[in-house]
Amino acid sequence: MQVEVSRRRFLQGSVAMSIVGGSAVTATNLFANSEHEHSSVPKSITTKTGTGEATEIATLCEMCVNKCAAIARVENGVVTKLNPNPMFPKSKNMLCPRGNAGIQALYDPDRLKYPMIRIGEKGEGKFKRVSWEEAYEAILNGTDKFPGMGKILEEEEDNRSSFLFCAGEGMAEHTFKQFYGAFGSSNWLNHASLCLQTVITGYSLTIGGYAAADLENAEYVIMAGANRAEAIVTPDTMDVFKRTKGRGAKLICVDPRFTNTAAKSDKWLAINPGTDLAFVLALTYVVMTEELYNKEYVEKNFNGFDDYKKSVIGNKYTPEWAEKITGIKAKDIYTIAREFMAHAPKAVYYPGRRSTFANNDFQLRRAMAIFQGLGGGIDTKGGLVFGKKLKLGKHAGLEPLYERAEARAVDKIKHPAKGHAGYSDCAVVSGGGSWIAWRNRFLEGRMPYKVRGMFIYKHNPMMNMPNIAKTAEMLKKMELVVAIDTMPSDTVMYADVVLPEATYLERTDPVKTFGGVEPSIAQRNKVVEPMFETRPVMEIMHGLTEKISKPLWEITKKFDEDVQDEIADSSEAEVFEEFDMTKPFHHSQEEVNEHMVKSVYGEEAVKALKEHGVFYPDMDKYYKKTSVNEHQYYPEKEKHYSVNGGLPKTKSKKVECNLASLAKKGVDPMPVWRDEYNFKVEEGKFRLLTGRHAQFTQSGTSNNAVLRDLIMENYIWINRRVAKKRGIEFGDMVEVSSRTGKTQLKAYPTEKVGPNAVFFVHGFGEESEALTWAYKNGGNDNAVIEDVIEPVYGAASMHETNVEIRKV
Ligand code: SF4
User: Is the pTM above the cut of 0.90?
Assistant: First the structure.
């Protein structure tokens, strides 16, 4: 968000307040006429179990991003079992082992239990237990150890952007973001630049959206750099290996490592890290030169096809050229290109859901999306599908414009050369920002103004961002750090004030619409009351804004001339209404959800979400069990394979091959190969590869004792011959080092990785001593990964680091 419009102009636009369903209504009016009955725990089903009476409550899992539906069994106020909820189309009656281990998130003895304030040095992890009131007081007025936000804002003359807000992925991120909006800062960072930034933007700019793959109906699947059998085992993973493979679809796996996905595929192609773009360009070359593409589709639905064809053929991106770069045999590239197009449109180049690996990742995603389009497999059964999204009602938010709030802290180049992006770190600054670029600018004194405080919600930058030494330095330099979390993570150790959040089984989260071929709405219902003194984020924000809203208003009044004029023209009470930060938090989450659902679908939907956790129109008619473990959610003819007439969802409704808008920002308008993308590793070094494992969701589940039983610590994969030469045997301790730092973990010599790369799984090796099970449980990849910034969106390129290894 860039605060570039003056508040006065904003007000003249007559959208000064909360918007509900298109008309201006204040938050307090929201439920004024409703016969709203607030019940914090949803209506439940009572069953008999071997141990006595049990209550079953429908909820949603939060052990990973997938949000599968679960049914929690509660006995005497204790959650004793989590079962899959068969009614949710997205999770199809599945709850994976990690989801089952969610009970431990609730009963983890290490979890944050009380508000705390820092009494030791930054990062030392020494805190004092305080009441909620004392914690809010410390945020507003500080202690002898740190300044409060009142002092900071006073000294920064009401520049609201002197605070950074950041959050990890989660359903309650939305609630926290409302606090950010009401506070009025321009500095927001989320996990996108450490996650899916380049894939989402690459696909969106090329075909109009990050579409899902219809793996249930695809006949041919290329899965490159996506390790679905191992990295995230969700219901659609089961589709790939049970349904898709089970009915004979062909699966090609492209990966530098022999993963479990490779083991289950029809063909594994070991590729040099970071060279997938060359592979896709060569596939495209074959399809173009042999004219295998769907001519009618391309003619009608492509923009810039001739330019791209000229570029691909003119640059001689032949399979023989690609073989030298990728290590994949030319004959395999010819075969795959031909087979893919023979099956198109029921053929999928799987978009993947991983973070950015290489600096060329954005162009790779564009090339993949174009290749998919060449076969016409867009918005169609068996190809990529956009799916339908069910509408939800709106609810009130508050985004006052503070005259003194500076625009987002980016580093603009004063006189950029023609074609240059205009920013010093990357070409485009997206809504979620570039985390590492922001951090580095802060440390290098390249901020346009002072940023002195930060709020962190459900986010662990100490573990999830390359170069943890720099992140620690940033957190130490930040004068006021407020962390809201459930666990005492490495990041929480650097906080000045810690606010303990209730776990997902103790709270109701914002209702969510899940788009797709079989769209639905689902709700995470509170299963048990919050333990200890923890609170859901909605309540945390309610208490905090009650405390700070008025005192901060006094500062605004002092410095904001627009506000002074407004008060002179009307009354202070009237103007304060626009700035009252408590407004978005006047109602409970249950009340807000109910309003959002009832206003569109009526009372029945509210009831369904409380009882079943799931709702979609005609659910009662469509939903039925069809076999022991299979259910119908929508009849075949009602499924939304196509929502755009088989066309891309770009503004032009065409596949965009050649984007002049990118060229204007100094970015290649078409995917091309550049010499600097070549895979290079100096003699004696190795390319460090990282990835995920289905038992762990990054560092978020690292302290889960149940999951730790499955993997106690991570091991580094080293090619067996290399290990032998260096005298490294299984279980030997190895030090991995780069220009950024070092980490230690045990060795796993194997033939599953080539001699020029090593691999270990992400999310291990935390330093927080408050985490009994995660503390130093292996190596931390981000201690070693260098902070390489992907040039288009500023994402962190995770696979651009070469490391040395030595036996300790
Ligand atoms: S895949 Fe597993 S961990 Fe992820 S939401 Fe589903 S059940 Fe939970």
Answer: yes
